Structure formats: C-alpha cells, structure tokens
C-alpha cells in the first residue's frame, strides 16, 4: 500500500471510530492534546507496518498525509500510544466490528475456527539458527467468526490459557447481529450445545461427525448424520470452511504471526486488534474500488 493507500486507511479508521461512538477523550480532565480517534488511527498504522511504537511514530512524522488526515500539529510520543493501547477497552473493538458489518443484512456462510499465535519477539527461524528449543507452554489462541463470502471477520476473541474451541461459540455468536444461513465448522465444534443453539436461530449446521469411540446414538447426532447422507451438496458446502484457513494464512503473512505484548491481557487485545485491522484494510480497499467504478460510470 502506497502513500495514498495509507491515507485511505487512516480516513476510513477515523470515520469508523466516529460511527462507533468512541469517546474523543478518556475523561473530562484530559489535557486534550490528542484525541483517542487519532491514537486509534496511529495504532492501526503501527500494526499495518508491523513495527514497534517508536518506529511507527517516526514514520508518521515523515508522512505528510498522516499529519494532514489526522490534523496533527505534531506526532505524539511513542509512549503515548503504548499507554492508549494499555487503557483501551475491549468493548470498543466490538463496536468497530459491528460498524464494519452495519451495511450487511445477512450472511450466507458463517465459518468458525481458531489458530495459535506466537507470544514472543523471536521467530522460529531465529530459534532454529541458534539451536534452541522453543518452549511453548501457554500461547494466545485466536478464534474468529468469518463471513466466508465477503472474506471479512465478523468478530474475534482470544484466550491465553488452554481451553476447548467449542467454548468460544456462544460469546462469538452473540456478537454477530446479522442473520446467517449456514454455519460451517470442523469436528472440534460437534457438540449438542452448538447444534441446539443453531436450531433455535434457524441456522443450518454443516459440521462433520466424530466417529470412533463416540457412537451415533443421540438424536441430535443422528440428525446430523442423516443430513450428511441425504444432502447431495453438503460436502461442497463444507469445503467453504477452507477459506477461513486461507484467512488465517493471509492474516499472519500480512500482519505477523505473533503478538509483541508482554502481559496476557494485552496479548489478547493485540491479537483481536490484528483481526480488526485486517478487516479495516480489506473494507477500505473495497470502498475505494466502488467509488472509483462509480466515478467511471458518471463520466
């Protein structure tokens, strides 16, 4: 993304922050040198560049478009951004996700899956070169609810302690306001609670069964098995789940596969912020292309 692309990214972030009703200042006794919308835009720029706070502020000083779009007389100190990220509320991220999907009325395929993130500053390549074993005890595990057709994440949640994937279904499903037609997931989400919730919401589950030690005796498991046998196109619909794996690959290649924060709460927030920034990048490019095509039609 060039200088014009960064300008579109910052403008879209500011517009999104206003629609999400994020307060301009943290309290009424603030110094009001900078707004929280400006801090959020600089934080998006930092994650987009896959840089630390010091380098992000240095690059923002060099870019004239950054000061023009954000209306900054001077760039804040890099510790100011770190303190803003430390006090940022997780509810703001949910509001920003909702505003990105505000124009969409329904979702055709809703996919859910999780992936692990690196919690550290050293890469696997560095560890292999120094012949040291990478000790991984607890790592951030990111669960994402993805709109398969638009390739946009609807919401995300992250945990540091080990837990089963199916426990993230209900908190993520409550945050999705759009009506979905199909829910696609792998065998890790094959449980009675998920099937019953989807039945109440009138959403068709496309989840393969776990065979082996678990016999097909329960009624809800028989219903799923009958659907897999009788439906002719269910395997093709289940193949839509592979697109969420492509999303995780693109997310890690573009914004990095790890989180640099030290504290576990900040690691969770940074992982979800990466998903939000990827969604902002995709949406800003789509809106630019739509505006460009509309200008060609008018001419």
Describe the fold and architecture.
The protein has 299 residues and is an alpha/beta fold. 53% of the residues lie in helices and 13% in strands. It folds into 2 domains: 3-88, no CATH class; 105-282, 2-Layer Sandwich (Nucleotidyltransferase, domain 5). The chain has a 5-stranded mixed beta sheet with strand order 4-3-1-5-6, sandwiched between helices. A two-stranded parallel sheet has the order 2-7. Helix 1 packs across helix 2. The chain is globular.
Quick gist of this model?
The chain has 299 residues and is an alpha/beta fold.
**Any idea of the CATH class of the largest domain?**
Alpha Beta
Helix tally? Answer: 13
The CATH architecture of the largest domain would be 2-Layer Sandwich
Residue share in helix: 40-55%
Number of strands: 7
| Average pLDDT level | 83
How does the overall form come out from the CA principal axes? Answer: globular
Radius of gyration: 21 Å
Q: What is CATH's topology name of the largest domain?
A: Nucleotidyltransferase, domain 5
Class by alpha and beta content? alpha/beta
Number of domains: 2
Strands of the biggest beta sheet: in what spatial order?
Answer: 4-3-1-5-6
**Low-confidence regions:** none
Tell me about the largest β-sheet: 5 strands, mixed
Portion in beta strands: 5-15%
Q: What quaternary form is this? A: single chain
- H/E series: HHHHHHEEHEEHEHEHHHEH
